[in-house]
Amino acid sequence: MPFNSQRAERRTDALSKARIVEAAIQILDADGEGALTFRALATRLATGSGAIYWHVADRQALLAAAADHIIAGVMSEVTMRSKPQDAIRTIALGAFDAIYAHPWIGAQLSGDPWQHAVLRIMESIGRQVQLLGMPEAALFNATTALMNCVLGVAAQHAAAARLPRNTERSAHLTAIAEGWALLDPLEYSFVRRLAAQLPGHDDREQFLAGVNLVLAGIQSIWF
Amino acid sequence: MPFNSQRAERRTDALSKARIVEAAIQILDADGEGALTFRALATRLATGSGAIYWHVADRQALLAAAADHIIAGVMSEVTMRSKPQDAIRTIALGAFDAIYAHPWIGAQLSGDPWQHAVLRIMESIGRQVQLLGMPEAALFNATTALMNCVLGVAAQHAAAARLPRNTERSAHLTAIAEGWALLDPLEYSFVRRLAAQLPGHDDREQFLAGVNLVLAGIQSIWF
DNA sequence: TGGGCTGTTGGAACATCGTTCCATTTCTGT
DNA sequence: ACAGAAATGGAACGATGTTCCAACAGCCCA
C-alpha cells in the first residue's frame, strides 16, 4: 500500500470563472501584468493550472475578462441626466480613472481595441454622440475620435505598467524628460520644449483637454 | 585528432546593428511580430543568439530600433511648404501608411508611446502645431491630441498584426462585425449600428476624418 | 615576428512561461 | 447504487528570452 496515494485536500469552495478573475485582478493590481502567470494564479487559488484552463480559454481571455470586469463596473456607475457633452466628459473621465487606478488595463485596452471592455466604453460614448444629432457617417467618426483619446492614455499608462513595481510615477516621467533633454536641440526642438513641462503636468487635465478639443471640433463642423 | 574540432565557417561580412535590424524587419514584414525570435533571427543571419545580444540589448530594443528605422525613413521624406494644417495631414497620413504597410509597427508604437519612433512623429507634428501660434500650454494639448489619432490606428492595426498570417484584412473586419451583431440589441444598440458599417468602411478616410476633427477643434477654440 | 589584449562570435545551457494531457475525484440524474 | 459528465491537480511538453562561456580575429606593442 503506497504511503502517499491520497491526493491533497480538495478545496471546499468551488472554482469558478468569477473567482478566477477576481484573483487575477488582485495579482495584477498588486504586482503588474508580468506577475499574472498561471502558476502564480494556481498557487493563489490553491489549485493547478489545468483546473484554471477548464474555466478560461487562455491568458488573453483571462486578461480581457479582468479588464471587462472593471470597465463594466465603471460604466454601469455612470449616471447622466445632463447634456450629451457633459455626459461624454463623465464617461471618458471614468475610463481615465479606471486606467489610472489599474495601469494594466491600459495595456489590455490598447492591445486589443475590439475586445468587450472597449466596446462597453464605445457604446456609452456612442449613445451620447447620437444625441448630438449629426449625420450617420459623421457619428462614427466622432465616436472613434473620442475613443482615440481613451486609447491614447491607455497606451501611455500601459508603458508605465510594464515598469518594475518600485518605480514612482513622477520619477518615471522625470526620467523620460531627462532622456528627451539629451536629444539634439536642432532635430528635436519641440520635444525638448515639451520635456520641460512633462514632469509637472496633470495627466487628467491634459486628457480632458484632448476630449474637449474633439468636442469643440464636432461642434464647429456640424453645428 | 577530433574529426569535428573546427567551428563552422565564420561569416565574411561583419555583423552590425544595422544588418540585424534589417533582417528583423524582413522577418516582421514576412511573418508578423510573433515570428521574430532570436532563433529565427540567428538562423537568417547565420550566427548565434549570443552574437546578436552583443549588438542589441534585448528584444524590446530590437523592435524599437526596427520601428524607428522605418518611421525615420517616412518622416524624413515628408517635405512641406504648404500651410501647417495641410502639413499636419501629410505627416499623419505618412504615419498611417507606414503602420498600414507594416502592421507590427502598430503594436510597437502603441505598446510604448515614448519610444524614439513616436518622438519622431511628435516632433514633426509639434513643429507644425507651433506654426499655428497658440499659447504654450495649448500647444502640447493639441499635439498630443493629434498623436492620439496616430496611436489609435496603431492600436487597431496592432490587433490585426497578431492574427494568423493567412487571415484576410476584410475577413477580419467582417468577423468582428459578425461578433458585434450577436450582442444584446438593447445593451449594445450603438455598437450594432456601427457593425453594419464596419466591413465596408475606409480606414484611411476615417483616420483623416479624426485628424480633421481635432484640427477643427483647434481652429474653433483658439482662432 | 610573436604574444597578449580587447572586441566579437557561435551555440549550449538555464529559467520561465503558456498550454496540453491525463489519471483521478466529485457531482448528478436515474 | 451506479454510469456518465463535469471538474480537478499536477506532471510534462515545446518554445522563448536571456545568460554564459569557450573559442576566435584582428590589432598594438615589444
Number of strands of chain A: 0
Number of helices of chain A: 11
On the 0 to 100 scale, the average pLDDT of chain A is 90
| Fourth CATH level, the homologous superfamily of one domain in chain A | Tetracycline Repressor, domain 2
Low-pLDDT stretches of chain A are: 1-11
Text of the CATH class of one domain in chain A = Mainly Alpha
Helical content band of chain A:
over 70%
Largest sheet of chain A: none
Description:
2 copies of one chain form a homodimer. By secondary structure, chain A is mainly α. Chain A has a domain at 81-222: Tetracycline Repressor, domain 2, CATH 1.10.357.10. The first copy, chain A, has helices at residues 17-31, 38-45, 49-55, 59-77, 84-101, 103-111, 116-132, 136-161, 169-181, 189-197, 203-222. In chain A, helix 5 (84-101) runs parallel beside helix 8, helix 6 (103-111) crosses helix 8 and helix 7 runs antiparallel to helix 8. The longest helix of chain A has 26 residues, at 136-161. Chains A and B meet through helix 6, helix 7, helix 8, helix 10 and helix 11 of A and helix 6, helix 7, helix 8, helix 10 and helix 11 of B. Chain A binds a DNA duplex (30 and 30 nucleotides) through helix 2 and helix 3.
